[in-house]
Design a protein that fits this description.
Oligomer: single chain
Distance between the termini: 49 Å
Strand content: 25-35%
Order of helices and strands: EHHEHEEEEHHEEEEEE
Helix content: 10-25%
Structural class: alpha+beta
Number of strands: 12
Number of helices: 5
Length: 248
C-alpha cells in the first residue's frame, strides 16, 4: 500500500510529511509506505494527493479491479469525490440502516424495494425521566486521574475513573416512536439495486429497476421545516405505493 498527497500547484497545500494522520499510517497498516516531499508547499514532483484525490484514486483502482473480474462497478466514477456510504442490498437489520436527522427528528432508512421502512425517533420520546448521574466519589480521585492522564497512563486512569465517576445508567433510553412503511407490491424482485448515504448533504437514496423502470427514493430530515421528507421518483409514468405508520 503506497500513500501520498496530491496537491494542485495553485492550492499551495501541505504534503504528507506535514500530515500527522498520514505520516503515522504505517503504525496502523504495516504494509503502508508514505511518499513524502519534505518542505514542499506546492508539490513540485506532484506525488501528493488531496482527500478528494485519494477517493478518486481509490475508486479508479476498485473499478479496474472489478472489471478485471468481469464485475460491473456500481460506483459512478464522476461522483466518487463525494463522501458516501453505499451498498448493493437493503438493510437486513437496524445496524445496516442509514441514519438521517436534523438533531431533533431522525430516522433509520432500511432501503427496501417492495417494502421500505423508516424507523423514526424524536428527541422528546424517552423511556422515562433523567437520572442524577453525579457521583460523590468522583472528586476524591479527580486529581489522581488527571496525574495519570498527564503521564500517559491512560489505562490506569480509566480503571480509576470507571468505579468512581459512573453512578448507574446515564439517562433513559430513546424509544422507537414508530415506523413509516412504504409498500410497493411487485418490487420485491428488483434488479440493479443501489443505496447510499451521502455524507455531504445528509440524504439517503435508494435506486433500483423493475421491469425496465428505474425507481429512485430519496429521504432527508429538514432542519428548516422540521420534517422528514421522502421523495419517490420513476423514469416512466405509473408510480404508485401504499403508506402506513406503525407504532410499538
Amino acid at each position: 500500500m503506497i500513500v501520498g498527497e496530491v496537491v494542485n500547484r495553485t492550492e499551495r497545500g501541505i504534503c504528507a510529511s506535514h500530515n500527522l494522520l498520514i505520516n503515522r499510517l504505517p503504525e496502523v497498516i504495516p504494509t503502508a509506505h508514505v511518499v513524502k516531499s519534505d518542505y514542499c508547499p506546492a508539490a513540485k514532483d506532484f506525488l501528493h494527493y488531496t482527500a478528494q484525490g485519494y477517493r478518486m484514486m481509490g475508486s479508479r483502482f476498485a473499478e479496474t479491479a472489478l472489471k478485471l473480474q468481469g464485475v460491473k462497478p456500481l460506483v459512478n466514477k464522476y461522483d466518487v469525490t463525494r463522501l458516501k456510504l453505499w451498498y448493493n442490498r437493503p438493510a437486513q437489520h437496524w445496524e445496516e440502516a442509514l441514519p438521517i436527522g436534523n438533531s431533533r427528528l431522525g430516522a433509520m432508512v432500511y432501503g427496501g424495494a417492495g417494502r421500505e421502512e423508516l424507523q423514526i425517533n424524536e428527541e422528546t420520546f424517552w423511556a422515562g425521566g433523567p437520572h442524577h448521574n453525579n457521583s460523590p466519589k468522583a472528586k476524591t480521585v479527580l486529581d489522581e486521574a488527571r496525574r495519570l492522564i498527564f503521564e500517559d497512563k491512560t489505562m490506569e486512569a480509566q480503571k480509576l475513573i470507571n468505579p468512581n465517576f459512573f453512578s448507574g445508567p446515564h439517562g433513559m433510553s430513546y424509544l422507537n416512536m414508530g415506523s413509516l412503511l412504504i409498500l410497493q407490491p411487485g418490487h420485491e424482485k428488483a434488479t440493479n439495486y443501489y443505496r447510499e448515504l451521502d455524507i455531504e448533504d445528509a440524504t439517503a437514496t435508494t435506486c433500483y429497476e423493475v421491469d425496465g423502470v428505474t425507481y429512485t427514493r430519496t429521504a432527508f430530515s429538514s432542519m428548516t421545516d422540521q420534517v422528514i421528507i421522502v421523495r419517490l421518483e420513476a423514469n416512466r409514468k405509473g408510480l404508485c405505493c401504499s403508506v402506513w405508520v406503525t407504532t410499538p
